[in-house]
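Lab channel / #folding
Pinned by the channel admin:
"Please post every new chain as: sequence first, then the structure tokens as a reply. Keep commentary short and put observations after the output so the thread stays searchable."

First post following the new format, from NK:
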Amino acid sequence: MAVTTDLKLSRLQKVTDRLRLFDNELPAQVMSVLFYIAAHNGCRTTEMPKALNLAQSSISRCTDWLSDYHRLGKPGMGLIRKVVDSEDKRSRRVYLTYKGECVIEDIKDIVWGSDQSTNQPTIEDND
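Reply from TO:
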């Protein structure tokens, strides 16, 4: 029996492979938070629990993982930066770093690029 490949789903698999270059055991919650931040660059962390149906503590862990310093003392992914909100000092706004923008552009190319794409995922720190 011949195996058929769904190219759209194959692209999604490539997205997870791209992100797993940072951490082979990267949780789906962290990916979800990254995609939310990419879609709402400059959003407040307090907006995310309702939008993503996650606890604020989960959002905090995920944003730590995505920033420079992971909660467990390990280096983070360096894809976002947290900034104290000028309107509410208790809140943080989150932005993609240059590195984060590059990763998101890679992901967009994987998802919406041509089937002939030969881009191999790489991790480059250009911050």
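NK: The chain is about 45% helix and 10% strand.
TO: also worth noting, The CA atoms of residues 70 and 110 lie 27 Å apart.
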